[in-house]
Amino acid sequence: RKSKDKGGNIMANLTTKELGALEDQLTFEKVMCCKYQDAMQQCSDQELKSCYQQYAGQHRENYESLLKFLK
To answer: What's the helix, strand, coil split of the chain in %, to 5?
Structure first.
């Protein structure tokens, strides 16, 4: 289900329940990104640090992808 907003952009019509689930997932992705960034900064093992950086980046990408549903 898609419709156009006032600016002519196509956007999804989401139910209240779907918006709530999207909000929960956005929060989860943001929290996980922050946790992995914190772990990366506190870690001295370079291999582990690299893994944390990769995980943080994936959660950041997930967050940004989910935000597209709201635009």
So the answer is: 75, 10, 20
**Helix intervals (H) in 1-71:** 16-42, 46-67
Beta strands in the chain (DSSP E): 2-4, 10-12
C-alpha 32/C-alpha 29 separation (Å) is 5
Cβ of 36: how many Cβ atoms within 10 Å? 20
Entry field: residues in the chain? 71
Q: What is the mean pLDDT of the chain?
A: 88
Give the pLDDT mean for 57-70. 93
